[in-house]
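Researcher: We're teaching a course module on how sequence relates to structure. For the next exercise, students receive a sequence and then see the predicted structure as tokens, so they can try to spot secondary structure elements on their own. Here is the exercise chain.
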Amino acid sequence: MILGVALGIASLVLGQANGQPTKVLDLPFGSITRLASPDGSLILYGVPFQKEVNGGPQLWLEDARTHQRQKLLDISDGVSAGWSPDGTKFYLQDHSSSSSTESYIYDARSLKRVDLGALIRKSDSSISRFTSGHAYFEMERWDSPQTVIVHFYGHTDTPPVVCFDLRYRVKFSGTTTKLQQHVFPPGSKFCRG
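Model: And here is the predicted structure for the students to work with:
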């Protein structure tokens, strides 16, 4: 039985949401272990690797009232997670390898998941040449309770190699809008990933 106590596997990162600092779990390397929703009813928390108990660190969700727990994810390389300002959703960024990051939004109660990268790939076929290299889809911020801004960046692996930096507005209904696109040569000071 996994206890709702995880020791030292999350960190506090300060960001801005509507002008207010926000807490973000950064697993498995941080110093705090639990991140409550804004109303305190749900808690995201990490469980460290425990020999003969689990295969590696994990991300869990607990209902603070009922103490019901649900495992969300086995953590391979690293995960960032945080709550929407209204607490009805949370995001999860899965840094599953050094060459990719995928971002998801979860409904906090139903756990229905929206794959932000998949929505962008589906709506913008012009980025297909970027998605097979080092490609990072990162949830940058909440734009509204139903909309987020996603930063997609990285570099291609096949010639001609280019670096790219794009931002999208993504609505959970499936609508995406490209806000900006920049393509740079390798070695440019703007090249990330």
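Model: If you want an answer key for the exercise: Residues 116-123 form the longest helix (8 residues). Residues 44 and 93 are 13 Å apart (CA to CA).
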